[in-house]
Design goal:
With about 190 residues, the chain is mostly helical. It is built from 7 helices and 3 strands; from the N terminus they run αβαβαβαααα. About 15% of the residues are buried.
């Protein structure tokens, strides 16, 4: 959201959408992306009409927001634009608040319990022996506690969470099923 926009919260933005059908223009980095699907789910729940404008990458939709070509965007942002006040964060599409902006709520906190599965994971072949999987999990868990890692994550303004192999498998399966259902409901998947 543009920093000088009159909307101070997601609630304000949604209220605008209710009273201005078709004027809720927003950008993401691709049609049918996680960001696009999540915005459409919020709009569906709130019975608000939106207009999605897909862009190739985040610099394009950030420029579109700053230029007033779209009302808001969902995805990655240049933090210097947020820190300078040129852009305003209204909500996070993540499981927990970001340490850099603790005042910004998550969608779940705002009553939208949709999965937001944006993650980076380390994978091993399915047949990897359990003993090796455990050693890898221990090594990565230990690495995530190191000051170099925690400081690097903080500098990048990311949020890091550790999941065991079992937890990650369950997380991916849950999101696969949830978004598979969503894609079918929206007609974006041809599978029955």
């Amino acid at each position: 959201m543009k920093g000088d926009a009159p909307f101070k919260s997601l609630k304000d933005l949604l209220e605008y959408g209710r009273h201005n059908p078709g004027k809720m223009t927003y950008g993401t980095n691709a049609p049918n992306s996680i960001s696009n699907l999540i915005v459409e789910q919020v709009a569906k729940k709130e019975k608000i009409q939106t207009k999605h404008i897909p862009f190739k990458a985040s610099p394009e939709y950030q420029a579109a927001v700053l230029g007033g070509h779209v009302l808001f965007a969902t995805g990655d942002f240049n933090y210097s634009l947020i820190d300078s006040g040129e852009l305003r964060l209204l909500a996070y599409l993540s499981e927990k608040r970001a340490a850099a902006y603790p005042q910004v709520p998550t969608l779940k906190e705002l009553g939208y319990d949709f999965p937001c599965p944006v993650f980076i994971a380390i994978m091993a072949p399915k047949a990897t022996p359990e003993e090796i999987v455990r050693k890898l999990e221990e090594a990565f868990a230990q690495a995530m506690r190191q000051p170099a890692f925690t400081n690097g994550i903080k500098e990048l303004r990311l949020t890091a969470s550790f999941r065991s192999s079992k937890e990650m498998t369950e997380y991916v399966s849950y999101n696969y099923d949830t978004f598979g259902k969503l894609l079918k409901e929206t007609g974006l998947s041809k599978d029955s």
